[in-house]
Amino acid sequence: MSQKSRLDGGLIDRSRPLSFSFDGKNYTGYAGDTLASALLANDVRLMGRSFKYHRPRGVFSAGSEEPNALVELRSSARREPNTRATVAELFDGLEASSQNRFPSLRFDALAFNDAFSSFLSAGFYYKTFMWPAAFWEKLYEPAIRRAAGLGRLYGKEDPDNYDKGFLHCDLLIIGSGPSGLATALTAGRAGAEVILAEEDFIFGGRLLAERNLLSEQDGSEWAATVISELQSLANVRLLSRTTVFGQYDHGIFGAVERVSDHLPEPISHKPRQVLWRIYAKRALLTAGATERPIAFENNDRPGIMLAGAMRAYANRWAATASQDIAIFTNNDDGHRTARDLSAQGVNIVALVDCRIDAPPSTEFEVLSGAQVVNSRGRLGLKSIQVQLRDGSMKELACGALGLAGGWNPNVHLTCHKRGRPIWNDKISAFVPATDTDPLLRAAGAAAGILSTHGALLSGAGKAIEALKELDISARTPILPKAEDAPVNIAPFWYVKGGKGRAWLDLQNDVTVKDIKLAHQEGFKSVEHVKRYTTLGMATDQGKTANIGALAVLAEMEGKTIPDVGTTIFRPPYTPVSIGAFAGGSRGKEFRPYRLTPSHKWAEEQGAVFVEAGNWLRAQWFPIEGESHWRQSVDREVIAVRKSVGICDVTTLGKIDVQGADAAEFLNHIYCNGFAKLPVGKTRYGLMLREDGFAMDDGTAARLAEDHFIVTTTTANAVPVFRHMEFCRQCLWPGLDVQLISTTEAWAQFAVAGPNARDLLQKIVDPTHDISNEGFPYMACGEITICGCLRARLFRISFSGELAYEIAVPTRYGDALIRRLMEAGKEFDVVPYGTEALGVLRIEKGHSAGNELNGQSTAAMLGMGRMVSQKKDSIGRVLTGRPHLLREDDYRLVGLKPVNAGDPILSGAHLMNVGEIANAANDQGWVTSAAYSPHIGASIALAFLKKGDQRLGEVIRIVSPIDNLEIEGEVTSPHFIDPEGERLRV
Amino acid sequence: MSDQILTPLAALGDHSPRIEKIGSLTIEENPDLAITSIAVRHRRDKDLQTFLMPALGGELPSPGRSVFTSDVSTIWTGVGQWFLIASYAAHPDFAREIKSLIKDTASVTEQTDGWVVFDIIGNNLIPLMERLCNLNGKAMMAGDTTRCLIEHLGCLIICRESFRKFTILGPRSSAASLYHSLVKVAHNVA
Predict the structure, then answer these.
(1) Which residue is closest to B32 within chain A, CA to CA?
(2) CATH for A887-984?
């Protein structure tokens, strides 16, 4: 199809035609086009439907502020909704489709909403659909959601990669228009580390869209010259297709680089987008300004757009929305647009200037003191109605209307840390407050300096100022001569008197009347008006809408615009895809895994793994013939009790504690005594928090007078280490003690069961006596195994059986488990996983994470007497609070079902027989439950009020959500070997 | 009994270290490092320096720095704490050697198998470093060392040669995850 509305010139590469489709229809554009410019060149004005009323809409801007031309790009899993056609770089084969319409863009059945607009005014959803209440969830809300909304997600996983990264610089420059380039040139030549970020795919900003010369050069040529020099400087980094979307604390900026968005799909292994965190010592906002429209009745038809955007399309992309264009302005910049379009051969039907003293023109008719009051054209502008200065009406046929209401500096990033902009009467716009942020300055149009000459000078000046603070000396480069036109503007926000709707926020279908209605209904704060009307929400965040609405609100309030104030700007400046935020952290790579030393071997055995924190632990080891996990777990438990089993317990935290005062340190850390623990012995220890509640438990083994190995639970390895470091550094800096984690350094295996010693004796070098006499219960020591391999042996037991934990340097962990399994064949050794580990410890009555839940005291755990009163330790004092010592508090007990076949579920609550099952009658809860093959029934540990005094009592075990209610007998928590004889044989 | 020498595995689970070449980059697992932590005892700083001076040929490095000699690398890891690194083949029980050398002037802890070590070599590693962590890789000179997160993992990053050679020590149990990140990023920037 021919490009009917393509003009001459522009920065497009006509030697590289590109095919693309929109709503299934094929078109041709050129390299350098955006989707919007290519569609305009192909005479397509209708590009979307509005959010609420499904009004036909066309492209409104030429940049990231676009409210209307939102499209879905690409297809299937790469489909990306809500993409602005104005910033979508054209590539060969690009598929685009309109969104939020049914069945087609030209005929949208949902446009019936528009006929009912009087019922859908501001805040309608707060006032309507109130009755009957039950209809809201099932009828009203789904229907509203179906009718409203933007694009659709495809529902399949995005196949592309996203990455993140970190950059550092002296000066971050945000935007590469004239002020940005002058800044970069100044700072780059001074040798500063500079990052120049530009959201467009060509550097130059507004210079690319203007016809004014810089000295003897086109603006785009000068920009290219500067960029060429900057590229030659090693200290300057140029980031195109990169939007700096937010300013955060301490000079940190967020930016997204669209590495592959301009390609059909990313090159192999390359990311689609990269999210950069930029650490900048100083930053300069040179992000330019956004033009604002003037509202009037029916001002939303396709073809009505910002005048500056028309100029950009004509000058940069050689495209026009129509050959017959009118301009409606309140300032001189509208005249510039008309001149540029006229120079491109476009017919200027008329320039409507609301100012009585509008400058005349010899090139086109200027209607001074006039206003555009209405428009016609269902799917595209056909004519405008103009009220002339004398009050008479005139109908002008035109295919497009440019609106030039003045320019708003893009102050957004200066407000992300709660900075508030200030009003500048000269340009009738908000500008960044000066001197409020030492890290981020603004220059050029972003600072309200709207001439090219001013932008160049301010960019260089601000660069010198910022670099001076970093002790970097810089000089103003020789800058080209550029236009320095003053801003002549008569503030004019909307045309009064029309009966129809004058649109302020095109994306959210907010009209002048909506703002007035909101005000009448009591919403006077600008923040309230925003939320009540949805003004300034969604993808464009009201970049072209907010100021007009503020003006209406100011008028209603009888205040000035600065007195009304603005809503606060927050990151992101433009939408950032969730994929970019996620980076590589998705799917299996959502977080790093930790693998145990025996992981490879366990995989070979077909182990079933469970995530424990970041660890992957073997949960059980199924063997042939086992079809249910309980079969495997029961077998493993029985094997341990009967002979011997091996479990990888590397995940338990290991903290190396050394120093002349190591024993005293641990004496303070644990509530029970450690000062007198002999060398070669291990002791169970309970650690309390300052508030007296249990923090963690574990063991401490004394390898030498000044050397302990502390073990923690898997989950608390890091918190305990952090706690101990805090104590060491802040509470007792005078103690000579040093800490370091050795969790990863040692592969540690529990070898448990009556034959544990016999098995170990086959691998422990004979120079070491591990007999019951030579290495009794709770002994520890450094040994060698398998021919002089260094190892550590601890005679400790979590299962209640004769048991050891043996540790070797991690690299030997795999070999050790293989060796133990080989050597254990004669004992029918089994590996056991975390499930069997859990059953074994419940049978023995050992507490674990379920019992150490942050709300349990030593007394509740049955360890109240362990809290030594003969020494000071963390938590000792507050353990003595009366509330924690009351006799009716919970105590750890065991539970057995009265009927052996009844299951007990963890989390179930305990109720007295005969009482209603409710919170008031609650007697406690089941913390851990398991089927015990040893007992032949379900067993559990539980916290029960006065539990230690209720042994033998029958109690109800109730779990309404599981539909469970059984009777259980309160027992000792020690279901097996309560005297501990098995441990000591 | 004394029956056999157990066969060690490298951190990535293979019998030999993994080497990956991606473009001009090489990522090399280095298992031949014996790592020992020393943490100075109270008021024994001078004694520790005295004992170590002959082996290190100078003083212990200051915060953020490492010192390399032909036999031993020394890395500052915290207040009064350093890692000493030597060849594992030459020093299979390095911690014991160090303990006998410095006696009770510092607490000595074996750290060899607490870490996976990757040497990364290339003509310009800055693009890779930028994607990995929030260090200013460009500003790192030989000997600069920093503890830093890479994909949630606490790592030690040592600059061996500006731009061209970095050593990364990461937690051994997460060796596979760290390696995955390194390789993925290397492909991204290659």
Answers:
(1) A811
(2) 2.40.30.110
Inter-chain residue contact A811 with B9, CB threshold 8 Å: yes
Q: Which CATH architecture has domain A501-573?
A: Orthogonal Bundle (1.10)
> Residue B1: its pLDDT value, please?
40
Does A815 sit within 8 Å of B171, measured CB to CB?
A: no
Contacts of B81 in chain A (CB under 8 A): 738, 740
Question: What distance lies between CA A955 and its chain's CA centroid?
Answer: 48
Rounded CA-CA distance A325/A345 in Å is 11
Superfamily of domain A652-742: Aminomethyltransferase beta-barrel domains (3.30.70.1400)
pLDDT at A444: 98
Residue A148 pLDDT level (bands cut at 50, 70, 90)? low
The Cα B58–Cα B69 span in angstroms is: 10
Tokens encoding A744: 């990863």
What's the pLDDT tens digit per position in A793-802?
999 999 999 9
Q: Which of B7, B20, B77, B107 to mutate to test binding with chain A, by most A CBs within 10 Å of its CB?
A: B107
Q: Which of B104, B114, B130 sits opposite A745 (nearest CB)?
A: B114
Q: What average pLDDT does chain A have? A: 95
pLDDT band at B106 (very low <50, low <70, confident <90, very high): very high
Q: Which CATH architecture has domain A1-154?
A: Roll (3.10)
A729 pLDDT tier (thresholds 50, 70, 90): very high
Q: Residue A606: left if φ>0, alpha if ψ -120 to 50, beta else—which one?
A: left
Reported as type and span, the H/E element at residue A340 is helix A332-343
Domain spans, chain B? 19-31+114-189, 33-113
Tell me the per-residue pLDDT of A902-941, one tens digit each, with 9 for 90 and over.
999 999 999 999 999 999 999 999 999 999 999 999 999 9
Q: Which stretches of A755-893 are DSSP H helices?
A: 756-761, 813-823, 834-844, 876-879, 882-885
Query: Using 50, 70 and 90 to split pLDDT, how confident is the model at A343?
Result: very high
Superfamily the domain B33-113 falls into: Aminomethyltransferase beta-barrel domains (3.30.70.1400)
Q: With contact defined as beta carbons under 8 Å apart, do B39 and B81 qualify? A: yes
Residue B26: CA count within 13 A, CB half-sphere: 12
Per-residue pLDDT of A361-401, as tens digits, reads 999 999 999 999 999 999 999 999 999 999 999 999 999 99
Identity at A803, one-letter amino acid code: A
- CATH superfamily, domain B19-31+114-189, is Probable tRNA modification gtpase trme; domain 1 (3.30.1360.120)
Task: Please say whether the beta carbons of A769 and A691 come within 8 A.
Answer: no
Sign of the CA dihedral running A857, A863, A869, A875: negative
- What residues of chain B lie within 8 A of the CB of A762, using their CB? 1
Confidence of residue B2 (pLDDT cuts 50, 70, 90): very low
- Residues from chain B contacting residue A650 (CB–CB below 8 Å): 173
Asked whether the predicted pLDDT for residue A860 surpasses 90, the reply is yes
CA distance A500 to A637: 80
**What tokens appear for A365 in the block?**
């008719």
Residues 700-719 of A with CB under 8 A from B: 706-707
On the question of a common fold for A162-289+409-469 and A887-984, the answer reads no
Q: Does A919 touch chain B (CB under 8 A)?
A: no
**End-to-end Cα separation, chain B, in angstroms:** 52
Closest Cα in chain A, distance from residue B70 (Å): 25
CA separation, residue A814 to residues A714, A795, A817, A818, A821 (Å): 20, 21, 6, 6, 11
* ipTM of model: 0.97
Q: What angle do CA A450, A456, A460 make, to 5 degrees?
A: 130
Q: Which CATH architecture has domain A293-405?
A: 3-Layer(bba) Sandwich (3.50)
